[in-house]
């Protein structure tokens, strides 16, 4: 009985800690009441659009999912669609919020016509003596413009990644996944069938996961293990709503600019502020690529650079010591991705209390930038060099790589590491064993770009 009582105390403590963590992370612990639907970033923008002189009557027959995409499943098949099927309703709500349109019922027009027929039949049968004019139903509104289109693409896992670390039984990791939906919306004239305007919007859908764990042997018979995690998925319905609202706003502004709304827009100057804002967004979007990246000519035809380096030798003596040096050089870009590099640096070889020798090292490298059109880019390089000191020259080859970020116009910050391999085992004057002399370097420096892109 005592042992059971003794074990229940840690169990209660653990349960209390888990309950506290649940509250801190905002995890649901009880049922929630129903609420009004959430607004997106563009809901407020739609509602704040300048009003037209007259609202435009539009009809939407079917604005639907045209992708045929099913939800991705890690195990087995998932027959649920990735995109909500009530997209027409979302579009009609966006049209109402804009206060530019009068949407009329067309998706379920058969239900509306049947109900009007029932009203007529009932009146004819039970109101025979009433005024005939009072029995007539008002005519249905007809649309001068039809809105067509739909969700034409749902791309899964366009960007995935993660980060994690574990040390001494304590670890943490995070993962993310990004999907994307694409929407096209077009306005069609009912008088002649002309497509007046087409707009195209897209929206990413992000899912993130954060996990932490602890695994430790307290003693030979006791093991402590704990885990915590949180996953958050952006609702697809809200992503579709935001993309549709953005498309409706774009359609309104494009229509104002091209004069397709007729008498609804009396003076274009009344809407100049939203036209200017939309124009700026279009100019910024002209160079944007997938992943919300903006490629450009951040680098020039040539560059001069300087590095501060930390170097450590691995030779035939014991107790190698780290030393500091520097490198200066010049780059000439053969293409946006490849450049030829010529440099010289000061390299100090030292084994504590044994040997210390300083080298002047000219090097020639070919460098490859993985993303030459972006501010941030990894790079790789390789080449050969000569190490000059009081003794005869020593020859070597080197490979390296690093990261560069353009911090200002024509200035790039670089962090890199380099591995040097001697062609002979004679850097320190001792030949011993089969392994050649080698060194590892770490550098931090700046690139100064000159010339034309």
Automatic annotation (TrEMBL):
Record-level GO cellular component terms: outer membrane-bounded periplasmic space
InterPro entries attached to this UniProt entry: Curli_assmbl/transp-comp_CsgG, OMP/PagP_B-barrel
Pfam (any one): CsgG
UniProt keyword annotation of Signal present: yes
Keyword annotations from UniProtKB, A to Z: Cell membrane, Lipoprotein, Membrane, Palmitate, Signal
Cross-referenced PANTHER family: CURLI PRODUCTION ASSEMBLY/TRANSPORT COMPONENT CSGG, CURLI PRODUCTION ASSEMBLY_TRANSPORT COMPONENT CSGG
UniProt-recorded name of the protein: Curli production assembly protein CsgG
Organism: Chryseobacterium hagamense
């Amino acid at each position: 009985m005592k042992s059971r009582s003794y074990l229940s105390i840690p169990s209660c403590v653990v349960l209390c800690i888990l309950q506290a963590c649940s509250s801190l992370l905002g995890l649901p612990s009880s049922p929630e009441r129903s609420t009004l639907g959430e607004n997106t970033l563009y809901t407020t923008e739609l509602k704040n659009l300048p009003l037209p002189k007259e609202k435009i009557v539009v009809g939407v027959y079917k604005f639907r999912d045209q992708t045929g995409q099913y939800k991705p499943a890690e195990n087995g098949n998932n027959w649920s669609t990735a995109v909500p099927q009530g997209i027409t309703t979302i579009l009609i709500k966006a049209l109402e919020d804009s206060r530019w349109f009068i949407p009329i019922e067309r998706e379920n027009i058969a239900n509306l016509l049947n109900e009007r027929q029932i009203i007529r039949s009932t009146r004819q049968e039970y109101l025979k003596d009433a005024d005939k004019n009072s029995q007539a139903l008002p005519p249905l509104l007809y649309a001068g413009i039809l809105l067509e289109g739909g969700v034409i693409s749902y791309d899964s896992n366009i960007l995935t990644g993660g980060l994690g670390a574990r040390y001494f039984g304590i670890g943490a990791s995070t993962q993310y996944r990004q999907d994307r939906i694409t929407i096209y919306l077009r306005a069609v004239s009912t008088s002649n069938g002309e497509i007046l305007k087409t707009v195209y919007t897209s929206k990413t859908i992000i899912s993130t996961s954060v996990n932490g764990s602890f695994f430790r042997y307290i003693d030979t018979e006791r093991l402590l293990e704990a885990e915590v995690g949180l996953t958050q998925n952006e609702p697809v319905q809200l992503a579709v709503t935001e993309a549709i609202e953005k498309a409706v706003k774009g359609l309104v502004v494009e229509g104002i600019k091209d004069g397709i709304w007729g008498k609804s827009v009396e003076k274009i100057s009344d809407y100049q502020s939203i036209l200017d804002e939309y124009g700026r967004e279009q100019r910024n979007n002209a160079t944007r690529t997938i992943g919300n990246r903006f490629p450009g000519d951040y680098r020039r035809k040539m560059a001069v650079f300087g590095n501060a380096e930390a170097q450590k030798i691995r030779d035939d003596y014991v107790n190698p010591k780290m030393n500091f040096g520097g490198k200066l050089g010049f780059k000439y870009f053969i293409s946006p991705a490849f450049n030829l590099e010529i440099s010289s640096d000061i390299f100090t070889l030292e084994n504590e209390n044994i040997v210390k020798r300083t080298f002047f090292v000219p090097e020639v490298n070919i460098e490859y930038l993985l993303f030459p059109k972006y501010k941030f880019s990894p790079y790789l390089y390789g080449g050969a060099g000569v190490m000059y000191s009081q003794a005869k020259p020593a020859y070597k080859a080197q490979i390296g790589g690093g990261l560069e970020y353009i911090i200002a116009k024509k200035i790039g910050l670089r962090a890199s590491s380099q591995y040097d391999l001697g062609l002979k085992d004679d850097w320190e004057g001792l030949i011993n064993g089969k392994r050649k002399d080698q060194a590892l370097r770490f550098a931090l420096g700046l690139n100064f770009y000159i010339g034309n892109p």
